[in-house]
Amino acid sequence: MNIMLHMPALLIVLPLLAAFVTPLIDKLSRKARNAFVIAIVVIEEIMMLFFAFHIFSGNIAIYTMGSSEPTKLVTEAAVPIRIVLEVDAMSAFMGIISATVAMAAAIYSISFVEESKGKGKFYTLLLIMLAGMIGMEFTGDLFNMFVFLEILSISSCALIAYRNSDGNAVEGAFKYMVVSNIAALLVLFSIALLYSQYDLLNIAALSKVISYTELDKVALVLLVTSFAMKAGSVPMHYWVPDGYSPAPASITAMLVSATQASLYALFRVSFTLYGKVITASYIGVFLIILGLLSMFIGVTMALSQKDIKRLMAYHSVSQTGYMLLGVGIGLYLLNTSDFNTYGIKAMEGGIFHIINNAMYKGLLFLTAGAIFYRLKTRNLNEMGGLAHSMKYTTLFFIIGALAIAGIPPFNGFASKLLIYEAAYRVSPILSIVAMIVSILTLASFVKVFHSAFMGAKIYEVEEAPKSMLIGMAILAAVIIILSIFPGLVVDKIVAPAAHALANWQVYAGGV
Amino acid sequence: MIYNIPFITTAILAVIGLYAVIFKRNLIKIAIGITILESAVNLSLIAIGYRKGGVAPIYTNLPPNVDIPHGMVLPVPQALTLTSIVIGVATLALILAFAMKIYKHYGSLDSHSRRLKE
Amino acid sequence: MSIVVRTIASSIFPMALIFSFYVIMHGHLTPGGGFQGGAIAASAVVMLLAAHGYKRMESKLSMDGLSFVESTGAIIFVVVGLAGLIAGVSFMYNLLVGSPIFGYVPHGANGGYLNSGGILPILNLAVGLKVIAGLSSVVLAMILFTEGEE
Predict the structure, then answer these.
(1) Which chains touch A (3 or more CB pairs under 8 A)?
(2) Measured CA angle at B72 (ends B67, B76), to 5 deg
(3) ipTM over 0.85
(4) d(CA C15, CA A150)
(5) Under DSSP, is residue C76 helix (H, G, I), strand (E, B) or coil?
C-alpha cells in the first residue's frame, strides 16, 4: 500500500475517527484520553509535514473517494462526479498551518481547560474542527467545501460557547453561528448557480469551462463576500471580537487558523475557479479596499480596548487586512506584465503573512490565556507586574509582540516588507497605510506589555502549568525558525504556494 | 411562465429570511429567518434539478415507459439538498440551544436589551 | 399526559421503530436512508417523552448511553470507509460488491433487492444509529435545560 497515495484522505479521516473514539476513551480514563489526543495531533502533524514536502517538490495529489483507482477520475461520462480531493502547494501550505496550530492548542488545553464532564466533548469538537479545516483546504469539490465549512463552523461555535456559564460566550457563539450560517447558505446558493449552468461541482473541471456569464458574476460576488465574512474582514468583522474574546484561549488560536481556511477558500475561488476569466480586476481592487479597511479599522479599534483578548481579536482583523492587501495586489495585477515582476512578490508576502499570523497570533492568544488562567481576569487595568512571576510567559509574549509589530529580525517583518515593496509600486498610499498600521500595532502591544507585565509585583502567582508552556513553546519555536530562515522559507514553501495560486492551469490540469 | 414560479418563490423566501435576520430583534425570530433562507436555497437547488415531466430518479418505483435516464429529474441537486437539510437540522439545534442559554443568562430574548441588563 | 395518550404512545412506539428500521435499511433502494429513518425513530422517542414526561423516562434514557451509541455509529461509518483504504484501493471504496453479503448487483429496472448496494446498507445503519442518538440527545439536552439542570 502506497501511503503517500492515500495521504489526502488519511489526513482528514484520522482526526475524524479520533474525534469519535475520544469520548469512548474518556469513559475509561482521563489520562488515557489526554495521551490519545496528543498522540493523534502529533501524528497528524508529522504526516502533514511529510506529505507537504512531497507536494512542495512539485507534485499535485489527487484522491478520488471510493474509486478503484484513486489518482484517476474514471467515469464513463469523462466528468468528475465523485468527491475529489486535490492538494497543491497552497493547500499543503495551509494544511501545515492548521495541523501545527491544532497540535499546540491540543497540548495547551490539557491543563488550560478545566476538568469537567464536558472535556471529552471538548476534544471531540477540537478534532472535528481540525478535520473541517483540513477538509476545506484539501477538497477539490465545491459542494464538499460547503460541507466542511459547515462542519468547521458548527464545531467552532460549540467550542466558543464551551464556558457556557459566561453569558458573553454564548452571545459570541450565537453571533458567529448566524454569520457563518448565512455565509454558508450564500455559498450553497452560488454553488447552485454554477451547477445549473455547467453541471459540474469539481473546481478544476469548472475552471476549465467557466465563461463568465452574468450568473457567474453573481456567484463570484456571493462567494467572495461570504468567504470574506467568514474570514472576518472589515465590514463583516463584528463577530470577531465577540467570538474570540470569551472562547477558551486554545480555541481562539484555532479560530485564527479557521478564518484563514476561509481566506484560503476565498483565494482558491478567485484565483483558481475564476482564474481563466478574471481579467477585469474589480475583485482585486475590492480585496485591496477590504484589506486597507480591515487593517486600519481593526488597529484603531484595538487601541482603545481594555480586554486583552478583545484587543488581540481586533488585531487579528487588522492582520487579515495585510493578507487581503498582499494577495489582492496579486489578483489586481494577474495577467498583466507587472505580475511577474512585483505582483507575485506581493502574493508571496500575503501568503507568508498567513503562516506568520497564524503562529504569532496563536502564540499571543495563548499567552493571554495563560494570564487569564492565573489571574481569572482579561481586564488590562487589573493586571500588572506579571514579568516577576511568569517569566516564560513574558518571554513568549515578547516574541509574539515583536513578531506581530514587524520588528526586523522577526518573521512579521519579512512578510510585511514584501507587501510594502510591492504595494509601493502599485500606489505609495497603500504602503504608507500599511506602515502606519504597523506602527499602531507596535504601540498597542507596547501598551499591553506595559500594563500586564511591567511594574511592581502585585500578584503572587505561579508560572503557567507545563502543558501550556509546551503549547506556547511550539508556536514560539516555529516563529523563531521562520525568523532565522525567511529566505529559505519563502523559496521552499511560500513561493510554490504563490505560484500554485497564480497558475490556475496547473490546478485544472491535475484533473 | 409557470416554470419560473419556483425561482420567484425562492427570491421571495430569501428576502423574507434576510429581512427577519437583519431587522428582527428576537433571537428565535432570527433563527426562523435563517431557516427560511435555508428553505429558499434548498428550493432553488431542487428547482434547478427539475426536468419538465420528469419522474423521481428511483429505479424501483419507475412508472412504465419512462426514458432512462432522460425522463428522470437530476438526482445530484436532490442529494445536495438532502445534505444541506441535514446540516440545517444541526445548525438550527445549535442556534436554538444558544438562544435558550442566552435566555437563561439574561432573562430576555431581545437582542437589544441584553447588554443593558448586565 | 392522560392514560389514553400514554397507552397509545407506548403501543405506537415499536411500530415507529420498525418503520424507521425499514426506512434505514431501504436507504439504497427507495427514498430514505440513515438520516430520515433516524429522524423517524428520534421523533418516536420524542413522542414517548412528551406522553410520559421526562421524570418517568429518566431511567431509560441516559446522556451517556446516547453519546456511546452516537460515537459507535460514527466509528462504524469511518471504519467501513477505512476498510476500503486498508484493502489498498481507496477510502470509501465499495468493497462488498460481488461478495455474498449485500453484494448482489442487479441490472436494469427492477423491484429492488435488499442484498444489493455493497457497503451502503452498513453505512446507512451507522448513520441511522448516529442520528437516532444525536437527535434524541438534542431533545433530551433541551428538556434537561428547561428543567433547570445544567
Answers:
(1) B, C
(2) 140
(3) yes
(4) 34
(5) helix
Beta-carbon separation of C81 and A63 below 8 A: no
- Tell me the pTM: 0.93
pLDDT value of residue A511 = 65
Domain count, chain A: 1
Q: What HEC string does A362-421 produce?
A: HHHHHHHHHHHHHHCCCEHHHCCCHHHCCHHHHHHHHHHHHHHHCCCCCHHHHHHHHHHH
**Domain layout of chain B by residue ranges:** 2-57+71-117
Write out chain C residues lying below 8 Å of A64, CB-based: 90
Domain that holds residue A478: 3-510
Half-sphere exposure of A397 (CA within 13 A, CB side): 27
User: By a Cβ cutoff of 8 Å, what residues of chain C touch chain A?
Assistant: 64, 67-68, 71, 74-75, 78-79, 81-82, 84-86, 88-94
What pLDDT digit, counting tens, does each position of A125-157 carry? 999 999 999 999 999 889 999 999 999 999 999
pLDDT beyond 60 at B118: no
For residue B69, whether the previous peptide bond is cis, meaning omega lies within 30 degrees of 0, is yes
Interface of A with C (CB under 8 A): 1, 6, 9-10, 13, 16-17, 19-21, 23-24, 27, 63-70
In tens, the pLDDT along A216-254 reads 889 999 999 999 999 988 888 889 998 998 899 999 999
Residue bearing the bigger pLDDT, B62 or A286? A286
SS3 content of chain A, % helix, strand, coil (to 5): 80, 5, 20
CATH number belonging to domain B2-57+71-117: 1.10.287.3510
Kindly give, in sequence order, each residue whose CB lies less than 8 Å from that of residue A406, ignoring residues fewer than 6 positions away. Answer: A412, A413, A416, A417, A438, A441, A442
Strand boundaries in A226-373, DSSP class E? none
CA Rg value for chain B: 20
